[in-house]
Amino acid sequence: MTNPGSRTQAGRTQAGRALDGEIEYGSSILGYPRIGARRELKRMLESYWHGGSTREQLVAAGRELADETWRELAATGLEQVPGNTFSFYDHVLDNALLFGARSSRFDDVAADLHPLDLYFAMARGLPDHPALELMKYYGTNYHYRQPEINSATPFSLHAEDLLAEHARAKSEGIELRPVVLGPISLLLLSKAEPGSPQGFSPIDRIDELVGVYLELLDALAKQGCKCIQLDEPAFTSDRTTEELALLGRVYDQLSAASVRPRLLVTGQYGDLGEALPVLAATRVEAIGLDLVTERISASSLAKVPGLKRKRLYAGVINGRNVWKADKAKTLDYLLELKEVCPDLVVSTSTSLMHVPIDLLIEYDIPGDVADRLSFAKQKVREVVTLAKAVYNGAPEEWYKRPRKMDFKLKHDVRQRVAAITPQMRERAPYEERKPAQDAVLNLPLVPTTTLGSFPQTTEIRTARYEYGQGRLSWDEYVEVLKAEIKRVIELQEDIGLDVLVHGEAERNDMVQYFAELMDGFAATHFGWVQVYGSRCVRPPVLYGDVKRKGPMTVEWISYAQSLTEKPVKGMLTGPLTMLGRSFVRQDQPLYETAEQIALALRDEVADLEKAGIKIIQIDEPSMRELLPLRERGREGYLDWAVNAFKLTAGGAKPATQIHTHIGYSSIAQVVDAFDKLDADVTSIVATRSIDWVLSQLAERGTAIARGVGPGVYESRSAHIPEIDEIDDRIQRAAKVIGAERLWVNPDFGLKTRYYWQLEPSLRNMVAAARRERRRLAAGQATVGASR
Ligand code: MET
Ligand SMILES: [Zn+2]
Question: Whose CA is nearest to atom 6 of ligand 1?
């Protein structure tokens, strides 16, 4: 294997350029997973947080993981290896702190905490210091901690770790290209610190921040660093004219520095659109494009003035999905691009942090599926192979016809999809459904419920593990789960909830659970992807036509229902959430795949009805998350998304009450779509705070007709809400939503909670709902703004 570092040192300086940047076969990636192939990061973090290891041990282990990553990458033959891709928790927070941008909320503890502990305090919170908010990262399932910046937040450079890593690699002959968030995206990802002056927004601080970026460029140049990667993913979303102008101005300023590394600016997670000509007009040396989300033609790139003089990092390998690229097609495309931009580097569309690390440690993915997959390690190989083919030519066999992919086709599924009629999506009008449901359910006003899951106790986890290991038979495993269901039902009756749940003891992760019960999905054993910090998930691979293997939930729900007179909700995960949390096949449009899942779930709805279940909840927390970043794709998406949900629920009888559970959005279009789902009751995940949700609902006059459960306490917080606190929210919600439409529930499932937290919380919730009922009965309640 060639060693890119030593080659750079030995052979490339005679070009005599101050900013060395020659390539032999341009190959790079924009970033790499940082959790380790066996989730080493999770283990080291949890050990430190629980007192099992010292800070020194954690720091050493983190460095080992980071260094192993770039050593391995360099050994693959990748010409340019990214650096600064490791993070102990979240790279957005790391980048804010790289420039000293710390929320003043933490000033009072800063002096007493080691910087690393202060960092974890911001990321995870302290008893009286709520953590920074968790926000979704550009349409991925990654979540970042939102930096808080005010009008006086001091900015200063803290690049010791970044520089030290660069120096360590250099001493091993490896030239790293540090990856840093660009200044504009960093500020646009941040929020104004609570208490900032009216009208202040973090982007107002851009000039000061750019000053510190210039210091960073200077420090890197002094250390002989040749290139820095500045990510500006904010520009693959719609931006204002002012923001676009700012992009030009900022990169003119940064590239004007007299001694500095080369600048690579990337726009990941979508198409740079109108930002591309702006960037091409600056003096940055290189631009990285996501050419997967939008395969921009070489001829349109040729029309961008100035682009042909840039080094183009062609992001043709998908950083967000797990399918192998079609070598011949991709090569042809790259060769066309090279005609336009001769200085071409084969690269990834995004950082590879959104895919699992290594396919080769999986042992039971069906062979024909595995043949088509590529995880981070394999993707690096794809980049190197394609780059060599671009520069040195490709072997003949790349152009031989690929094998037929008919393993995916199930004709019965295709026929069913083809036979879908519009009527299948429509239920009886709500005016008919409502009285029919009231007659069956006979619920009190402001009914109380929870959203599905109860704690996954050690007992449940142990039983699942033992069953997986073959030490517990299926029947024994079922016994454990049934005992758990019984306990959960009894507890809910004791607390006095009106609509009960079975508790989801059988589900480790809901998406994984349903994926395992449908054909067309494959599970991985080690395919972990970071969500944030130590939290990782294993998204299933949706490779083929989807079909239910048999009833998926009926046994559990009917058992729960047999134990109580009160209604027990059937609990399903909706088609959009199944899509949003899986690695989805790309050989057909997403909406076709959505329809297949919807049909499978529709059958489950029918089976639950047959088993006497009267309420069915279809969770769609990810519906909002799949929304295209740019306006132009949104209407089309929302149309088919609503259709898929309605296909799932559309077969339900008028008397069956359909609930859904969604993540609210501040985008009016999305809220309209929620209303179009035509669910009888909609409960809301507080992705920000419940008070934010309530204020949004108030601003819009609700916008969701029919029942609404806005969430009366945040179930994922450790705080146990008082009756008064919940009562206050109920009264505010009743004002906006109307008491006759209001449901009282926490904002989220309870599976990560402890019983000592949830039991008092739910008792207080039920007490608060009863207070509201007494007020309503006495006729003194606020009359709602019902529609
Ligand atoms: C993210 S959807 C949450 C609802 C799910 N039924 C649960 O309680 O876990
Ligand atoms: Zn959480």
Answer: 452
Confidence of residue 3 (pLDDT cuts 50, 70, 90): very low
CATH architecture of 4-88+133-403: Alpha-Beta Barrel (3.20)
Rounded distance, CA 615 to CA 606, Å? 12
The ipTM value here is: 0.89
CA distance 73 to 696: 47
Q: How many residues does the chain have?
A: 787
Rounded CA separation 210/182 (Å): 9
pTM: 0.92
pLDDT-wise least confident of 44-48, 113-117, 368-372, 387-391 = 368-372
What letter does residue 687 receive in the DSSP assignment? S
Q: pLDDT tens-digit profile of 440-452?
A: 999 999 999 999 9
Phi, psi values for residue 400, rounded to 5°: -70, 150
DSSP 424: G
Q: Cβ(621) to ligand 1 under 6 A?
A: yes
Helix (H) or strand (E) holding 613: none
Q: Write the residue with the smallest CA distance to atom 1 of ligand 1.
A: 621
Domain 411-451+496-506+567-580+588-777 has CATH 3.30.70.3340: no
Other CB atoms within a 10 A radius of the CB of residue 269 amount to 25
Among residues 378, 387, 263, the alpha carbon closest in space to that of 318 is found at 378
Ion ligand 2 neighbours, Cβ < 5 Å: 716
